[in-house]
Amino acid sequence: MDGQLDRRAELSEFLRTRRARLKPQDVGLESFGRHRRVPGLRREELAQLAGVSVAYYTRLEQGNGQNVSAEVLDAIARALRLTDAEQAHLTHLARPKQQRRRAGAPRGKQPVRVALLQLLESIETVPAYVTGRRSEILAWNRMAAALFGDWGKLPAAERNWARLVFLNPDYRELFVDWDQKAYDMVSFLRMDAGRHPDDPRLSALVGELSVKSEEFRRLWATHDVKEKSYGVKRMRHPLVGDLTLSFETFRLVDDEEQCFVTYHAEPGSPSAEGLRLLASWGTDAAATSAVTP
Questions:
Q1: Which residues pair with residue 249 across a beta bridge?
Q2: What is the pTM of this model?
Q3: Are the CB atoms for 141 and 128 separated by under 8 Å?
Q4: DSSP 77
Q5: Under DSSP, is residue 105 helix (H, G, I), strand (E, B) or coil?
Q6: In contact, 232 and 103? CB cutoff 8 Å
Q7: pLDDT tens, 77-119?
Q8: Strands 128-131 and 137-140, how do they pair?
Q9: What are phi and psi of 192, to 5 degrees?
């Protein structure tokens, strides 16, 4: 894969896959005939719902988002029943110049503030870490190292959630619902690709994972997107056994591409006892928090 993703192709495939998942009856339309050559809505049906001409929508789905208005994108998003994350992704793809002016061009290094590193160090009983663009792991505390493995022993290039999930067999064992974790990681990377299609390191990562992982290739082809948020993960830790942990994601106000992520257990639960054990003796060999160079 070359140094950047093809934004026009990304826009075209995203719209096509969103249209394909809808049926006329899903949106209150009568089917145009019994025999449909394409899955989902036809272009003329989508254009009718969005209140635009078929020719206009066709140009957009062919990757030509030049001069498209925010109002038209909103109408198409409503017609396609896009989620908030999907609508943001559509805007990133269709109006890249506006997005670049707002978000800025991708930077090389992603420094973590010293105060944030100190906060990580001070959290002794909760696994916590900071991620950046391309799912890179930028900093972590001892509990995160005890739960997920000592990232400090890995080369900087391998401190990446997507690489770990798809290329490291230990993580298939760690995450009980590995399929969901894999889906989430690809969906997060898709959001990054929409924001920064000209990021050569992201393009290289996608290319490497596409070559090395059939699962990644299949999930990448779905064009699904989502933002990091909160939820529950079930894990099977080699030292303390089964854990059910809630995670929370906090996007930093001074750098929206960095996220502070924590995992915690319900008080008094077996999982809380598992974390207590990790805190008391499972961190002996774990590294302190670190930042990628």
A1: 261
A2: 0.86
A3: yes
A4: H
A5: coil
A6: no
A7: 999 999 999 999 999 888 765 444 444 445 567 889 999 999 9
A8: antiparallel
A9: -60, -40
Q: What is the token pair recorded at 258?
A: 């960095």
- Alpha-helix residue ranges (DSSP H) falling in 52-113: 54-61, 70-80, 84-94, 96-103
pLDDT, tens digit, for every residue of 249-262?
Answer: 999 988 888 999 99
Kindly state the tokens that stand for 13: 């495939």
Give the CA angle between residues 70, 71, 76 to the nearest 5°: 95
Orientation angle between helical segments 70-80 and 43-50, nearest 10 degrees: 120
How many Å apart are CA 57 and CA 71, to the nearest integer? 13
Place of tokens 């207590």: 276
Distance of CA 213 to the CA centre of its chain: 17
